[in-house]
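Researcher: Please translate sequence to structure tokens.
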Amino acid sequence: MSKATEATGSDEPAAEPAGPESPVGQESSSARSTPGPAPAALRRYLRRFGTRRTALADARAGIVLGVESIPDGLAAGVLAGVNPVFGLYGYLFGTLGGALSTGSVFMSVQATGAMSVMIADVPTVTGAADQGAAVATLAVLAGVVMLGLGLARLGSLVRFIPTAVLVGFINAVAVNIVLGQLANLTGYAGEGENRIARTIDTFLHASSMHLPSLVIGAITVALILLLERTPLGALSMVVAVVAGSALALVPWFGEAPVVGDLTAVPGSLPSPVLPDLTLALELAVPAVSLALVGLVQGAAISSAIPNPDGRYPDASADFRGQGIANLASGVFQGMPVGGSMSATSIVRAAGARSALANLIAGVVMILGILTLGGLIAEVAMPALAGLLILVGVRTFKPRDLVMVWRTGPIQASVVAVTFVLTLIVPLQYAVLVGVGLAVVLHVARQSNRVVIKRWEYDGASPHPVETTPPRVLTPGEIVVLVPYGSLFFAAAPVFAGQLPEIPDRCEGAVVVLRMRGTDELGSTFIRVVTDYAERLRRAGGALILVGLGERVLNQLDATRAADAIGRDRLFAATPRIGDSIDAGLAAARALTERGARAEPDDAR
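Model: Translation complete:
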């Protein structure tokens, strides 16, 4: 927020001081004309790029992120098993698209490690004859999913992905990152159906490993660990990768593979391409999984890093921004991207004050591609592998695994299944299976947590005493029941099993069911309630519902359950706590005193 905005206490900028062309006291034409909503919206949008006073700090931060992103982008492509320049293009256009469109001012949108490993498990992409078109199609599809969720304002969707799934997935991804780079590090490509089998095969053939590649990777890791303690900070990985690649020029290291061995590195920006719609069906599931993982990682940024005005960004706006960034990345042959916590942390630690820092980072990457194409081709693959292995090791969080494991058997089951599946099956399916398992187990747990208590009024206090409901109703008895827990369809049988049994005859018995706080009832639950009311009526008793919300009343009316129970036995909730239950108890006492029964069968 600018000082002018703070002074006026408004979202609109303060009035400009009078100049020579607009003297104080003289109404100018610009003052007479009221700006429309478009200019005001434009001014609000432009504030995300800071002011002249913040431009220098943003430039420094943007240069740091831009330089760091060049080797990091290449590494993302290597990790994904695609042409490394596709990773760099994803970093470039994801960063630019995110800077222009996310709700979070500071969010850096780039290809994350988790998303890169997921792409490596999509053979339609990695094995495509035209890999650029396949990568573009996957990024565009993921962008469409993200943009659609953002336009539908479903930013809260991420809270339905359990922590146990995320912890199991991210930690297994960390293991996959390490295992997936052993071939580039050792120079030996292990054989097997999955990464674990290929890793075992690699170590069984240790004598076939390429020693120069191992040395380059080890030196790169050592340099990163050493230099990151110096003022270089985030740039330490750039220096380490450059130094490790320089070793490949030494005769003994000359056989170490470089990026140029895999592909020709262009010295120009990519041309736009159209997605291959014939691949849309095959890539639908991977695109949805990538979108979910990217959005969850982005939501961690939205909830942790406020904008410069102190407000936390709208998660739905970040969904839309990441969707737009993916569309831009896909059109220019970039990998799918999402909110990157590591890149966001780097740019903020470097002093970013606005979204201008990410724009400058994109410009730096453009200059790097245009001027350093030949040098990029000489980057040693073992150096990139060492960088990625270090990233994987640091991504692994055993403490998080232990915490989730100790939370309970359901969480332990979910984290274990997700972790194992992520190691042995394609990641896009592991994510969906983990989420599905968590939902099923959560529903099962919640359905068994419904508890019914009885409220008894003993006259000693206006407040009820909470006790256990009676097992069987007795004639003339008034029983006030209060359910606790979610009353959705799976919980209905558990709820029904806790209701008092109805004997053949129980004249004057009334059950008062308090429903305050229940916003909606499912058809299964409505059927349980109406069946119980009908059995009570046949036995000479009655059911009264109190504390009903407007939506529940409408549901009872639409399903004709109100007629089955009796409209005079339904009491709406009121703002004053207790009014509805008092009215219900008065009606219950009247029924008991008269020995009233529900209408006989022939009166219906």
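Researcher: Any highlights?
Model: The longest helix spans residues 52-80.
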